[in-house]
Each structure stands twice: as structure tokens, then as C-alpha cells.
Amino acid sequence: MTRTLALRVFAAALFGFGAVAQTSDPWTAADLMAPETLAKAINENKAGLILYVGFPNLYRSMHIPHAVLAGPVSKPEGEKALREALADVPRDREIVLYCGCCPWDKCPNVRPAFKIVREMGFKQAKLVTIPTNMHTDWVTKGYPQERAAVPLAK
Predict the structure, then answer these.
(1) Which residue(s) pair with 126 in the sheet?
(2) Residue 64 and residue 133: Cα distance in Å, rounded?
(3) Phi, psi of 9 (to 5 degrees)
(4) pTM for this structure?
(5) How many CB atoms lie within 10 A of CB 43?
(6) In sequence order, what are the residues at sequence separation of 6 or more whose Cβ sits closer than 8 angstroms to the Cβ of residue 118?
(7) Domains of the chain
(8) CA distances from 93 to 24, 47, 84, 85, 126 (A)
(9) N or C terminus: fewer CB in 10 A for the chain?
């Protein structure tokens, strides 16, 4: 095999892998929202329904203002909580999902959460891209945040 042919085969393999990797995500580029876009919408009181689909302990330590804890959708109880949180929500309302528990490509929650939202008929669902984690991609940028009230120990 000539070097040129080998490079073409290698490039084709890479392209094919990239196409497969892209189709494994249940969203398109139009479904994604940058953190700064959500921060601006919150500051202007224009954000849709914000749902946190990660772990409760992380939500309690810090979350995006007005976010509703739906729970980790990678677990059956989190999936149930998300479905219950959306049961009475009009299907034309903007829904904004985020997690930020870990790097985006390893997150166990965003993919199943987005699939559920789409299955439930929400056409205006957005997913906030948190490439590294909430601390790096939200907190250190100075975006709005709140902490859940924690009961004092007796």
C-alpha cells in the first residue's frame, strides 16, 4: 500500500468515526446553549424553565438561579423525577437542561435527560454546554449562582 493510499484510508476511518460519534448524541448544534447565553438570559429575566439533571449534593452546594432539581437522570429515580417535573409543563415552553458534574463527554446525565425531554414532546429544549464542570465553566466566569438552603445541625 502506498503512503498516499494509507493516508486516505486513515482519513476515511477518522471521518467515519467522527460521523458515528456525532450521531450518538441526541441533540443537534441548534439544541446547544453556551453558558454565557444562559447567564445573560437569567440576568435579563428571559430564561426558560431551567432543570438541573445532576446529583443533589452538587445542586445543594451551588446551582444556576431558578434551576429546579430534577435529579441524576442516569438513575431510575432521576428519570422519574425529570418526567414528574415536566408532566404539566406546556410542550411549547423553552426547557433548559444542564448538569456539569463532570466533563461533558463523560456526563452520565445529559444524554438520557435530553432524550427524555424530546420523547416527551418538548421542541424548544436546550442543553447548556458545560465542557469541564460547573466550577470551571460557570462559577469562575462569574455567572449567577445560588446555593440551596442547608438546615443547621442541632
Answers:
(1) 96
(2) 13
(3) -65, -45
(4) 0.79
(5) 12
(6) 26, 125
(7) 27-141 (3.40.250.10)
(8) 26, 11, 16, 13, 11
(9) C
